[in-house]
Every structure is written in C-alpha cells, then in structure tokens.
Amino acid sequence: xxxxxxxxxxxxxxxxxxxxxxxxxxxxxxxxxxxxxxxxxxxxxxxxxxxxxxxxxxxxxxxxxxxxxxxxxxxxxxxxxxxxxxxxxxxxxxxxxxxxxxxxxxxxxxxxxxxxxxxxxxxxxxxxxxxxxxxxxxxxxxxxxxxxxxxxxxxxxxxxxxxxxxxxxxxxxxxxxxxxxxxxxxxxxxxxxxxxxxxxxxxxxxxxxxxxxxxxxxxxxxxxxxxxxxxxxxxxxxxxxxxxxxxxxxxxxxxxxxxxxxxxxxxxxxxxxxxxxxxxxxxxxxxxxxxxxxxxxxxxxxxxxxxxxxxxxxxxxxxxxxxxxxxxxxxxxxxxxxxxxxxxxxxxxxxxxxxxxxxxxxxxxxxxxxxxxxxxxxxxxxxxxxxxxxxxxxxxxxxxxxxxxxxxxxxxxxxxxxxxxxxxxxxxxxxxxxxxxxxxxxxxxxxxxxxxxxxxxxxxxxxxxxxxxxxx
Length: 472
Prior knowledge:
Elements: H1 2-32, H2 41-49, H3 53-58, E1 62-67, H4 72-84, E2 91-93, H5 101-110, E3 116-121, H6 126-133, E4 137-140, H7 154-165, E5 178-182, H8 186-192, E6 198-202, E7 221-223, E8 229-231, E9 243-245, E10 250-253, E11 258-260, H9 268-283, H10 295-302, E12 314-317, E13 320-326, H11 330-343, E14 349-353, E15 380-383, H12 387-396, E16 401-403, H13 407-424, E17 456-460, H14 462-471
Parallel strand pairs: 1-3, 1-4, 2-3, 4-5, 5-6, 6-9, 13-17, 14-15, 14-17, 15-16
Antiparallel strand pairs: 7-8, 9-10, 10-11, 12-13
Helix pairs in contact: 1-2, 1-5, 2-5, 4-9, 4-10, 6-7, 7-8, 9-10
C-alpha cells in the first residue's frame, strides 16, 4: 500500500520530466527544420503530456507577469533589460511574444535553469497564469477593445483580472505579490484594487473611449485635463500615486525622488512603459543573484534599448530608411499618430497595412474607431490583405491615398514617390546617383511639402508587421 502511494507521488514528477524532454525536443526540431521559432509547438506538446507543467516549472522561481492590451511585448523586453543590464543572462522570457499557455510552457522549458522568469501574458489568460505561477510582480498596462471576435468585452476582462488578483497576497511560496498598475486607466484600477499590494503609477492615458462607464456603479467617468478622473456618481476615482510622469518627462515618486525618463525608444507610450518597469524592477528583489535593481538603475539600463522584437526598428531599402511600427487596435494607432506628431516634420511616406488573420482578429470594424483623419495632407499608401477595407475608411476620413496590396511593393512605392517629390523640388533624394547634378532652387515652401524628408513609416497590425519584417 505504501509503495503504491510512493508510486503515485512519483507519477507527477515523471510526467513533468517527460513533458520537459518532449517540449525541448520539439522546440529544437521546429527550429532545425525552419518550421518556426519553436516557441509554441513545443509548449503544446509539453502541455499535452502534463497540463500542470507551467505551475510545476514556475515553482521556486521569481516570476513577473506583464499584461495589457497594448505594450506587453515592449514592456516585457524592457523589464528583462532592466533586470539584466541588457544581457538577458539569468532571466527566462517568451521573447517572441508567444503569450498564451503554449508559449509560456515553451519559455519555461527552454529556460528551465533560469532563476527569474518574465512572461508577457495575453489579457484573457492573466488570471489563470497568476494562479499557476504565483508571481512576485504583476504589471498591468491598460485595457481597451482589441480582437473583438476573440477577446471579451473590456469590462468582462477587468472583472476577470479582478477575480484573479483577489486573495493572492500570501501564497504557498510565502512571498507576497506586488501589482504595478496604471492609475490612469479606470478599468485597470478596478481590477488592481482587489490586490493586497499595489504600486499605482500615473503614466497618462490618451484613449478613454473604453472607460467612460464606471465599473463600480454604472455612473460616468469624468476625466480632467491634468490626468485625474472620478466617477460622477460614487467614490471610484484615481488612486493615490506611488509615482507619476510629469510634464518635463521626469518620473516623480511620492517620496520626492525625481528620475529623468531619457530613453531611445520613441513616444509617450514608451516613456510610460519605462516608468512601469522602473517601479516593477525593484519589486523583483535580487532577481539575477546580484543586488536589487533600483529605479534609477532600471532607467539607466533602458537607455541602451533602441528596439524590442523589431518594434521601432529601422532598415535601409533602396537608399531610404524605413521604420517599422506596430499598431493593432484603435488605442495603439492613436498612440502612433501621437508619436508622429510629437516628432514633427514629414515622413517620406506612410504605409498602412492591415491583415485580419487569427492573430490579428478577424473583425476589422475597429478601423472605424481609429482617427485616420489625422493623416490628412500626408502621403499615404494602403496595403495588406484587408487594404480595401482600409481604403474605404481612409476615403471617409478624407485622406488621399493609393492602394498597393503587397506590403513590400507598397514600401517600394512609397520610396519611389519620395524620390520623385524630392526631384521635383530640387532636393537630391537618398537613392539618387552620386554624380553631381545641377538643380534649380526649390520653390518657396517646397521644403515643407509632405514626402520630401524623413523615413518611410510602415504602420502595420500584428501579422502585417511581422511578415514585412521577415521579408525585409
């Protein structure tokens, strides 16, 4: 009888070991045969053998989870960089953005010797992964509409997060969980306020359309120009801040500490991501076996990052710089338009690419919530598998545009158009011959014409972005 009990106790360990070996082998085979990056299929195989593998592999490790509608991949990469000084040594992560259980299992298998794990988590799986991994830190970025055919309505996701965070202060590991949450998103606040320990960070919120209704009482959330918000019918409002970003791009802590947000990654949203990481990194403790990472050290390390998983990276093509930008939902596209306005000047051209595959969401009705009107007067090309849907939206936005279905051909068309405009105004284009050619002076105001300077900007949703990046 006792031997039978011992055998029963050994079964989970044996099953987990078999799952790890199988997952690792499948990952390696996938990469060897060039069938993929080996970040999902191995995890699926491992979970088929041991459905509880994620919890088993996470046990005894320092785990951080990062979730939200926008910015998950970038913030996860930032947190890894902050914890390791950019080396990645000693920290395991799902660096390719495979953020569902199969991707988590594959990352844990591939990094089974790492003492620290940082995982990007799809919003719909966060509550489940909190229960499985008992994380030390959970970073909550934002919640807005996304992939309407797959992901629940925003309020439902907030409630799901709230349930997952409630009662997770002291766990079997004995270490508490700290939530680092965006205090400017009412849906995130509603979810995070159920957690015992929260670090509220004021990072700004440009997209309010999914948080106008109070989740506590059904009243209306009112936003003020300085970033505060409050329900008009109950006490639900912006919580007291642990840290916030001020107008001088400085991260200000409640104790008076001020740290400049000087990073290479562009845009207000990336400074917001960096602020969240600066607060989250110290909560991981001595994550890499060295000293605790301070907020100042975290921000200093983030200054070395110029792109994360190809986002914001640039490539040279036909003598012109092309910058790759990911935007997958109304909030994300709005943030990218803010970035273009913040940087000023005129891009050589803007290529907008939209697909509607499973990873993107099959429903493209979100296009009508994107403020494409802000692109009026710029040189725009619509591309991707749903370029016709995009073209209809641009027409109603009064944005002059052309349609080139193939994304790489669209980029080349934008480069050629920029060269033509430059030639018309007497400016030597980047792709012109090195031979000296006499040109007449540019007409008055020609230097301000769209399409004569700057890189070609490629804005694509998920699969459109990743596929073009691979082709370039």
